[in-house]
């Protein structure tokens, strides 16, 4: 028996698919498809907040330099304002790696619910519903490989 995918709630083997303690033999599955739900505005708002957190100090630094030039104060004051603005801009550096990692994970998880469906014994059955795009893709590809591997035996 070949195991194509395995985690705590889903197992895809060359014999069957187990999802949430239900077993579906591959010989009884005739069709596999997926559906996507609507976008999650909460996820999109979170991505926007991360973008704002990254851009905020940089915008403040540019605004500080522009103000220093516009005010036309003494050289000492202008240098102090530009220096303080540069420090504010550099403040984003240590936090950027952390924020970019969260942004990356957000895209890996996806912003939609995804569902994996099969036709089992002639009726549609939803095997999986998840917002984790990466996990969904792994499971969907595993199910496709398992079903394709059993097709020569079905003919």
Summarize the structure.
With 155 residues, this protein is of the alpha+beta class. Helices cover 56% and strands 28% of the residues.
Topology:
Blueprint: E1 3-6, E2 10-13, E3 16-19, E4 22-25, E5 29-39, H1 41-71, H2 75-90, H3 92-109, E6 112-120, E7 123-130, H4 133-154
Antiparallel strand pairs: 1-2, 2-3, 3-4, 5-6, 6-7
Helix pairs in contact: 1-2, 1-3
How would you sum up this structure, described in words?
The protein folds into two domains: 3-39 and 111-154, no CATH class; 41-109. Helices cover 56% and strands 28% of the residues. The chain contains four helices and seven strands, in the order E-E-E-E-E-H-H-H-E-E-H. A hairpin with a 2-residue loop joins strand 6 (112-120) and strand 7 (123-130). Helix 1 (41-71) runs antiparallel to helix 2 and helix 1 (41-71) runs antiparallel to helix 3 (92-109). The mean pLDDT is 84.
Major β-sheet annotation: 4 strands, antiparallel
Q: Mean of residue pLDDT? A: 84
Name the poorly predicted regions: none
Q: Which structural category do the helix and sheet elements fall into?
A: alpha+beta
Radius of gyration: 26 Å
First and last CA, distance: 20 Å
- How many domains make up the 3D coordinates? 2
Q: Determine the number of helices (DSSP H or I, runs of at least 4 residues).
A: 4
Oligomer: single chain
Number of strands: 7
InterPro entries: DUF6232 (IPR045629)
Pfam family, one: DUF6232
